[in-house]
Design brief:
221 residues, OB fold (Dihydrolipoamide Acetyltransferase, E2P), mainly beta, 14 strands
């Protein structure tokens, strides 16, 4: 009889740079991933990775490497995931003001890459119990897998398969633009471009657990 091993939900502490922004302050962010009222990006003044929650979506769909203007709001209790150290609550929807590409984007992203010798988001399991979340544990990371990134699509699911620390992982992928492109083409399996990067994040609590997902598959800038 083969013994089964329980999932390892241990969370390893990682110091996370935090953006201490007062309500009313305007910020300029480089978008990495956006879905509805949630947007992850890089603050252009400090280089810090943030997750911004707005009262309503932007007027137009945001793409990776768009530049947006946001205003920090006064009520952090509106955030779905208050344990996220990168979280900001906005007083209004993001406003798209431009776009960056090339070497400037690469200079911003390279210092943010998740260490390849560390567990994804500092934990070994596919989810973290909400009661174990701490404000010094990251909730979002920019990941560069060493091998190919493979997307698998069916009627209700988009999975992202990649290698991390010598093990193949598959996480749900929430990249709606990628799912729509696969649906239009009729493709059910595809490989992302060479050295694609992934925006991996923890969901807000679902039945007491925050699950790891791929929020966006980022093209090379």
């Amino acid at each position: 009889m083969t013994a089964t091993t329980a999932p390892d939900f241990r969370v390893l502490r990682t110091d996370v740079p935090r953006l201490d922004a007062e309500p009313g302050i305007a910020l300029t962010l480089l978008v990495l991933g956006a879905d509805g009222v949630c947007c992850a990006g890089v603050d252009l003044d400090t280089g810090v990775l943030v997750r911004a929650w707005a009262p309503a979506p932007a007027e137009r769909s945001l793409r990776p490497y768009d530049v947006i203007r946001v205003v920090v709001g006064p009520d952090p209790e509106e955030m779905p995931d208050p344990a996220a150290p990168e979280a900001l609550y906005l007083s209004e929807p993001p406003e798209a003001i431009g776009r960056l590409q090339g070497r400037r984007v690469e200079r911003l992203l390279r210092p943010l890459l998740h260490p390849t010798n560390a567990p994804l988001l500092s934990s070994h399991g596919p989810a973290v119990p909400f009661w174990e979340r701490r404000r010094d544990h990251p909730s979002v990371a920019l990941v560069e897998p060493l091998g190919p990134v493979v997307l698998r699509r069916d009627e209700t699911y988009l999975g992202c398969r990649f290698e991390w620390q010598g093990t193949m992982r598959e996480l749900p992928c929430l990249d709606r633009r990628l799912a729509a492109a696969m649906d239009r083409s009729g493709r059910r399996r595809m490989t992302a471009g060479p050295r694609s990067r992934l925006l991996v994040a923890l969901t807000p609590p679902i039945d007491g657990h925050c699950h790891k997902v791929v929020e966006a598959v980022l093209p090379r800038p």
